[in-house]
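Quick one - inputs below.
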Amino acid sequence: MAKETFDHSDIEKKTQEKWEALSLYTTDLTDTEKEKYYLLFEFPYPSGDLHIGHWYAFALTDIFARKKRMEGKNVLFPIGFDAFGLPAENAAIKNGVNPKDWTEQNMETMRAQIRTMGTSVDWSKEVVSCDPEYYKWTQWLFTKLYEHKLAERKTAPVKWCPKDQTVLANEQVIDGRCERCGSEVEEKNLTQWFLKITAYAERLLADLEPLPWREEIKEAQRAWIGESEGAHLTFTAHTGEADVLHPIEVFTTRPDTVFGATYLVLAPEHPSIDVLIQDALNADLVRAYQKETGKKTERERSENKAKTGVVLEGITATNPATKEEVPVYIADYVLNSYGTGAVMAVPAHDERDFEFAQRYALPVVQVIEPSFVDGKNPHVEGKEVTDRNGVIGIVRNKKNNTYLCLAWKHADWTTFVTGGIEEGEDALEAAKREILEETGYGGLEFVATLGNTRSEFFASHKEVNRIGHTTSFLFDLVSDTQSETTSEEKAKHDVLWLTEQEMHARGMRHAEFDYLWKRVTEGLQAYTGDGYLLNSEQFSGRDNREVLEEMVTYAGGEFVKNYRLRDWLVSRQRYWGCPIPVVYDPDGEPHLVPADHLPWLLPEDVDLTPGARGEGTSPLATSKELKERVTRIFGEGWTPEYDTLDTFVDSSWYFLRYLTPRDDHTFSDQGLMKSWLPVDRYSGGSEHTTMHLLYARFFQKALYDLALVPTSEPFNERFNRGIILGPDGQKMSKSKGNVVNPDAVVKEQGADAVRMFLAFVGPYNEPGSYPWNLDGVHSMRRFLDRVYLLRERRTEREATPDELKALHRAIDKIGNDIERFKFNTAISTLMIFVRELESNPTVAQEVFRSLLILLAPLAPHLAEHMWEQAEYKESVHTQVWPSVDVSLLEEETMTITVQVNGKKKGLITVSKKLTQETVEQEALGDPAVIAALKGASPSRVIYVPGRTLNIVIPG
RNA sequence: GCCCAGGUGGUGAAAUUGGUAUACACGCCUGCCUUAGGAGCAGGUCCCUUCGGGGGUGGAGGUUCAAGUCCUCUCCUGGGCACCA
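Output:
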């Protein structure tokens, strides 16, 4: 027997027509009676096919839009098309179609498909970014940015995609490849248009703080902006015999280590090189190095692990702290585009500098003493503190991989050879002497200085707090000959040769053991942590974090903040984009196209075939009409700008245009922006976190400063949604053949079942990935069929207390869940509610009516259909979202978990009026509890009202 | 390497933020119905069990009367950044 069901196709058609006839979703932006709510999703690129991902993006935000509307908000829920972009152009080249026609046809298809979802988007506000009436204002905004020096033309090394034949913004390069087509990106020096997003780095960062966004989104933006605090210090270069002074500014985050700066490194592109090279004795080598590295991209340079460089012979620079002369190198491990393109190299405290110093045998001067606290003998409060210099001598026997150690007799200590430095002795001599005195070994070969360390401990035999400054050395044993040690020494300790395992087993007493051991086994390395200054004149001995300000002043520098963020390169050598509204005079100087000539139309007589133009040039260069237009308007000798704008410019302000999509006099109405901005909630994909979202924030701030928009942040809440995977759990792609066509499923199961399935897969407020599952759609359809059957039980009678309780519980949870984009749990609550209603033969009128209202955002078509069938008035979607009657949620009884020593032993259901005493009595009478107590009497009872009673018994 | 999220049944996932772990579904198992279907309905489904219970949220410790939730360490997975001085 076929189950009774509803004809979804018929219902969808009918209800969608009804909504259109009622203009249910055309928002009156001037309505000030109701509170506004601006709900935005990222406008789609018209790729031509609506895939299930579009459903996930639009149909689910629609759930929220409908509920907000029922709550009495004036909801703006617009849609548009991000219609400029490469695919149209590629399709044009491949199939010989016109990009405009291709795009328009795709939009037509998608509009029809989107309508099948039954979303409540407001089509009357539609914006299309490739439409001249839209891009007129993209151009106008560009001219405003230019007038305020936020758009500029400059020559810079830029990322070039050889396949797409265009430059890319930094953000569009992923792992050295084009984000769009995956080709290896090249580097070119081109003159291009940039928007000065870097001018807003600090504010983009600071204004992030109060935004109610998930921390991970903020963190990704912070990382992208990449602020680092440091200082500019000036090293003065001396050039050869002429002894001309040339200042070189460096950026460092560690000005505290300036005494350890033993050489200077410039990026190969650093402008000072041209000056310095005139006096360099090896100009040829330097030029050759510049040429060689110039051929490589930044990525290729970093792939080559070994650091290379060339010294500028005959040139030195004065370290502003030590006043000593240090050599100057050029090396490609220094990036010209970050900081000042020059660094002071502190090999002792920077890994990269250390590596370079090792390779070129440059001096390593330790200026930070790492500090260790002896956890077993920490400083004792109130005792005198004395400093003491000492040595540690580590002797390695390579033959059997053992190390010379002392086992102390007065305590359970094992150490390396250690001792003090005597008058007139240097540390190395002291180490050798101590080794000989304490162990009798004299046949040593010096291997390395392991550097200085500082340790804090309490010297119990002297009753003083010690700060030990220790210099450690590594030796190899070259002769087994052991001389006799004094009886005094023998009384103090035994001499042992220990393996690494043995040392670990005994536990070496040195607080700095791990630090030393790493250097014994792995070799010398840079120490990048904090500590106390060393070899730094009057600063020596002080905490490195405390000397920063004084040090910067001393070295004549200043504190600065530096950003990883680069200016936004917006020129694209592509056809299907917004023309940059600029022309060049006969001298090649750029001029804005005056406002009365906007929109500056994209020419149509272009040859898109890749061979038709020179490399690095836009297809617009093939247009005769464009050239003639420029000559006609501006005069002979004037030439057009051929590049178009990055499509991210189009999408940086589209949400402003939604307010007045057809207005020919302004990009957006000031009054409406005042009442409608910022966007209340913006839903989109996590891939836009560091691109679109950052660009749009920058645009908003720039326009805010120009008094063109009323808020400095465009979006209040931001939710990154997840993605729908193919049925195989893999990311959908044509090549894998796992792309789900929603049209067929919608036809078979209905739009409501599809959107409810998508809503059910997981929380919509976090970016997960969920596999498509047809069984899941079936199960939603089954549920909707059950809801449909409930109409037969609708009865004219008063609601029972049980019904009301079930209803209000559902209202409460569903409302809260939809509010937080947790549609999955909203649906499960609805399912539970429906099951409760099914358990009775009839459903009270009032409850049935409320059920349809709760169903409306989730299954808008069926809810509307059933609303009509029940002969209720108007539309279910214009009803008021029910409010919760909290008094109805309360139960007279409560179920309490009874625990014994925290373990659940049973549940008791008792009247809510009972006090702890009576609950306790009740619980103690429970057979399971009696058994668990085994006659013991409770030592303590914890009662969490309405939840838990925990009886604690001893033992 | 650094910085963020996460790790709960066979699967997607819940858990009112420290108080009954696995809600709601999918799948699977058993049965019913049958016009034999990619249909519907009913029941079962974390593991062990001597049927009294016992164990269980990646692993190891810890805090607490009580831990999926808090702390420490550790191992995986996903994402971001990466020669950024």
